[in-house]
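Sequence in, structure out. Go.
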Amino acid sequence: MKTYSIIRKAFATIAFFCLMSAPVCGNAYGAPVSKRSVATKTTGKKNNQGKTMKNTFAVPDFAYPETVMKNARILHTDPANDEARAEVMWAGSLSHNGLTGCGIASGDFMSHKMEHEMGGMFDVTHGAGLAALWPSWARYVYKDCLPRFVRFARNVMGVTADGTDEEVALLGIDAMVDFYHSIGMPASFHELGIAPTDAQINEMARRCLEASGTALGSAKKLSLDDIIAIYHAANT
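Output:
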């Protein structure tokens, strides 16, 4: 995914107390676009098979996602907690401003692109759609980027169980699903409240492929059939 600096804001502020009256689902899905998105944008930049700058890659995998997950749980039951909200918003700034992607050849944002089509067709919030789609995407591509998913499981999700690399990677994905559920987020289309037909899935996949151009993923480059299969997996 190309980053166009011309469309990045040079300066922006937000009064986080304005978000305290948001509904619980709004906090989980959208602050700041979102707790879910910060985790995937940070880890997504490292879930790749290209070259990376060692200094950037050495930024602890757990630093931003761990902060987000810890404080998202707090905000789920205490949305007026200003310290937790400030932590989430600062993590969001650091994750989205390009710091965690400096010198990295490419991240993998196909789950984001696939969710864009879900949002366009079903008007779902980006964070909610990502949570509903990411587990199916991760289970579809993890074997093609196994060392990174093992690192994600161990360093981000805290998996300590013994097992093969594949077993550890899947435990990490399962742990992420458990986190979504702990803050009331969906992990499938059914939980999201949508049920796309085969025709709608085919249309979303076609549009996603057209919009992606040649940037079809780094953990695994996806074809039209791959995208359709992931949508179907999330729809079961």
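Check: The longest helix spans residues 165-182. Confidence is low (pLDDT under 50) at residues 30-37.
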